[in-house]
Write a structure and sequence with these properties.
The protein is about 40% helix and about 20% strand. By secondary structure, it is of the alpha/beta class. The relative contact order is 0.15. The structure holds NADP nicotinamide-adenine-dinucleotide phosphate. NADP nicotinamide-adenine-dinucleotide phosphate (NAP) binds next to helix 1 and strand 2.
Length: about 325
């Protein structure tokens, strides 16, 4: 098979960036043999500078340095910031993997816009830019002729947007709902299984590294709301943004309410209802496919032909989420 070289730039080298790099190091030869592509990372940008190497960066080495908080010791470390790299270094695909700021969409929003303006395709796991300016970004991508792909923004490893694109083509999607936040699901599961308060369950989630030090985006339902926006626009053809979603988090859910639900053979889950643009704690029958435990995510897509399809799996994790990033990358390469 003839091999095509594809240059990648990674912006944001945290959990997802490193997870992606580790999987690419592992799967590089597999991708060459099966898809005829030689994926080469030519730049990795962090907040205060970048590693730049046109020949391709040794990924094992860069992951090790980053895990030791020593990326600056890399022989190709430069003070170039992410926007300098986007403007100066031509790549085929920019991977935008910076933190999500749901209020502003930044810094990812600018990274994505500038990359698309230069005609470079973007693959992102960053939900905020899409929750804030979904239709504007789609228009920009269309006008620039570059693709913007975002499977990893919702449900981590779960195939949802690409499932619709590649396996549910003739279906009319009537509704989409599900559990889109692993932290909330972990906390609610722990409260139900061990009859502990939310504070105790949350503390344990933080100790295990499941919940952020500041878990308010998760607990207040904001993270789920942003994902509802992305699914509404991409699966249900709506044109909405975060302000259109009614959001109630789980902070008022008590152990007593969970116990009462259990007596009636139900559990309480934080459900993102995409059709209704609503996020709220809801009663779910114990034998329903959306009754998944721990940090799992689960989404039911209801269609006219295939009927209900439920996808369950890890909604987070560096390596797990890279599966979605690769799905988008391979799609872009195939369409070129
Ligand atoms: N973690 C998951 O399982 C998961 C799953 C699905 C989607 N996501 C989404 O994927 C994105 C990345 O998540 P993550 O867990 O990898 O976050 P993370 O561990 O916080 O990593 C983000 C990285 O981006 C860097 N960064 C911040 N501002 C930057 C800038 N202006 N230019 C270049 N780099 C910058 C950060 O540097 P500093 O450390 O200096 O701030 C950090 O190294 C987020 O939007 C998140 O919501 C995460």
């Amino acid at each position: 098979m003839k091999t095509k070289e594809i240059n990648l730039v990674i912006i944001g080298f945290g959990v997802i960036g490193k997870g992606f790099a580790e999987v690419l190091a592992d799967k590089h030869d597999f991708l060459r043999a099966n898809y005829g592509v030689d994926l080469k990372v030519t730049a990795i940008c962090e907040r205060d500078g970048s590693v730049v190497c046109k020949k391709g960066i040794d990924l094992d080495n860069v992951v090790e340095l980053s895990l030791n908080n020593n990326l600056k010791a890399h022989e190709n470390w430069t003070t170039l910031k992410s926007l300098d790299v986007i403007n100066k270094i031509r790549s085929d695909i920019v991977l935008e993997l910076t933190p999500s700021n749901i209020e502003t969409g930044q810094p990812g929003l600018t990274h994505i816009k500038e990359s698309l303006k230069r005609g470079m395709c973007v693959v992102t796991s960053n939900k905020a830019p899409l929750a804030v300016e979904f239709s504007q970004l789609q228009k920009l991508a269309k006008n620039s002729g570059a693709e913007l792909r975002y499977e990893a923004t919702v449900g981590g490893a779960l195939p949802l947007i690409n499932l619709r694109k590649h396996a549910l083509q003739v279906n009319n999607i009537n509704s989409v709902q599900g559990i889109l936040n692993g932290t909330c699901n972990y906390v609610l599961t722990k409260m139900a299984d061990e009859y502990v308060s939310m504070d105790v369950a949350l503390k344990e989630a933080q100790n295990l590294g499941i919940a952020e030090a500041d878990p308010s985006y998760d607990i207040n339902g904001i993270d789920t709301g942003a994902k509802v926006v992305i699914l509404a626009n991409s699966l249900l053809g709506m044109d909405v943004s975060f302000k259109d979603v009614a959001v109630t988090g789980i902070s008022d859910v008590t152990t007593e309410a969970i116990e009462l639900a259990r007596k009636h053979n139900h559990v309480i889950k934080l459900i993102g209802d995409v059709e209704r643009l609503d996020v709220s704690p809801r009663l779910v029958p114990i034998n329903h496919p959306l009754n998944v435990s721990g940090t799992l995510n689960a989404v039911t897509i209801s269609t006219d032909i295939a009927r209900d399809i439920t996808v369950i799996g890890p909604g987070a994790g560096g390596k797990e989420t890279s599966s979605s990033l690769f799905s988008d990358i391979i799609d872009i390469i195939r369409s070129k």
